[in-house]
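job 3f2a | input accepted
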Amino acid sequence: MKKIYKWLLNTLPRPMLIRLSYVFKKFAPLIYKGDAVECPVCERSFSKFLSYGSKVTHRDNVLCPYDLTLERHRLMWLYLNQKSNFFTKPDLKVMHIAPEQCFHKKFQAQKNLDYTTGDLVSPIADLHFDLHDIPLEDNQYEVIFCNHVMEHVKDDLRCMQELLRIMKPGGWGIMQVPIDSTRTTTYEDDSITSPEEREKHFWQYDHVRLYGLNYPKRLEEAGFEVETIDYKKELSDAAFDRYRLMKSELLYIVRKPL
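job 3f2a | predicted structure (258 res):
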């Protein structure tokens, strides 16, 4: 059973994996029973997490076998709990672009949130639209999440500006992307179109760019104010290892100027 479960988690496309996770996750606490690692989102501990990633980004011991969180999901959850009013402020109007499955039902259940999800095609999204031209009025949302989306879109600056437009003045958001910390600038090449070459150059078959350390500057070009959160300063090495976080990952909190 353990070998079958591991094969499924590391072989199936993520959309199919998410659907099947509802069936298989009931077995995860038994298959991976232990206390070596912990997922703060599902609040369960395991003997280990599963490996995950493409040939270029393969990582061991990072995928929670219960709710399928990765390092970035667990990092975001810690920030929301420890440094934001997301779980406490009443009547908080939230737009969640490309909603992550591990967060979706939890956020839906929160009594303090006016929670809406949006995506081009996702079946769990409330609204379907192109991020380049969002069919919503200005200044609506106090919080916007849009994670691991900008590396897929044709014009990321345009999409950032659209999110800024629908955010309320003084609102904030989280817009994480994969970042190659060895690059000072973002790498783009429109001539690279095949899935194989895109995976080689941009880390995944459907990515159209690979962000470098200038990513926060691009957010600022769109009009956001950007705060950088480095959780290496917040957590011990033991906590990083237990939650299996990526020490090189920074959180970029965007805000719309008043």
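job 3f2a | The first helix runs from residue 2 to 11.
job 3f2a | closed
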